Amino acid sequence: MGLFTFFNRSPATVQRAFPRIPVRVGTVNRMYEAAKYDRHTEGWWGDYGSSSWTILGQLQIVRNRAREMAVNDPFLRKLISQRRNNIVGALGFRLVMDVADYRKDAAGAWSKFPDAMANDILQRDFRLWKQSPEWCDIKGRKTLASMIAKADKDYVVEGESIIEMVPGATAAGNPFNFSLRRLRPDSLAIRYCAELENGNHVYNGVEVDRLGRCAGYWFYTSMLPTGLWAGDLYRVPADLILHRYDEDYEDQHRGFPMIACVLRTVKMLHQYHEAELIKARRQAYSSGSYIPDPAWPGAQAPEDLGDPDNEAERAQLGQQIEPGQDRIVPKGYKYEQPASTAPNPNMPLFAQAMLRQITSGTNSTYHSVAQDFGSINWSAGRLAEADTREGWKFDQQEIIDTTLRPMFRRPRGWLAMWLASGKASLPFSKLEKFRKSDTWKGKRWPLADPSNEIPMMETFVRRGWASDEDYAGEFEYGSFAENVAKTRQNDVIAKGTAIADRNAPKAGTPVPVAKETDAKKVAGKDNEA
Fold this sequence. Notes:
alpha+beta, 19 helices, extended
């Protein structure tokens, strides 16, 4: 019996082929507990995935609330500054060029011959450009490090960062023919969704082709006094926009604030701290009660104090005093101050639990954001920092992949515009060779335990488990080859000076023997095995 023959049969025949199995109500359980719908899960509809409609209806609300808390909440401000200090750093990202030729040496083997002069020129000129606000920023205000730090703040609070490349910028005598312009994310037309004549679609201001590849961005022209962007639309090609956001779902074209998952907790904790502060302040100023003193049986009743003849005593019951002053008690009365219940003795533990929830959702360390170093020991702090630093490394690589490397490599990026300006010391014909030789190094952090970590690194290099170049990449100073070249150059410069002699062993002084560390003991046991 063919498939079409089966479906062309009458319903009665199909019913006889598949008899209905009676099922009692309440005997069928869902495979997943999370899919149950009962009184405990009533109202829990779940998330149907991000869409243009979700972004249109919720993104602006979340952004407005995130901005408010980023301005007013001290813990969020500390979180943002922590990211600025550790992801970007004071000097920002460093460009390390590795331009080299590959040719056969005298023995006939292929070898790598670095072009030291080209590397030095590229690194020197890029460093000059990124540290000059009048050339790096089209508005002449920010260096590249400052612009990347502000863009990361947009990523946290706004949900995305948008930087426009401005090729051909010659303001303030810009010799590099290139600048950057930081754009407000809400200027990207969130309400613009359309199907264009060329077959492309626009979702919340982002134009994509039929394969989902970004083709352009549509921006509003003006901001209204209310703070909303409106007006005519203008299009910027995708190769001029550096757009960074977290894609929670495939085909999501705009990003939600990174702090969205903890924003409600931040707001409520902020209000809780405010309420506790008001309560403590109110109780500090709180008025007590005047009650008759049994030691004065002749005291007047409160209703008699309203008599015009006793107006002076009546006024004493409503005294206004300043902090540090004492009250004057009317004759025959005593003043009772209520017992203070502020601050709440459970407040520190409660706030600590909430802050740990907030820092867990934002990949930050609790003891640093809360400035609570007394609740942890050195080992716990080190473990927390290690995990957080891996997250910072991921963010650094994301900034490199979405902002720095496209800015450097694109056809109208920094390298092409600088070589085409006619003021570069290198020829434009080497563009393709230079374009594939860039490496970016982000901020790194000092070793937590150098006395043990450095011997461990030496053991790994000696046994072939790692190389000097691998460990040089964990520091922000440069590549291993570059560091060796600089060391040799410094030795030549310092030869014959006190600097060169200070590390030389004195005559008759025995050479110190390094103390056997735990790492070396382990390596020795491995060798014996």
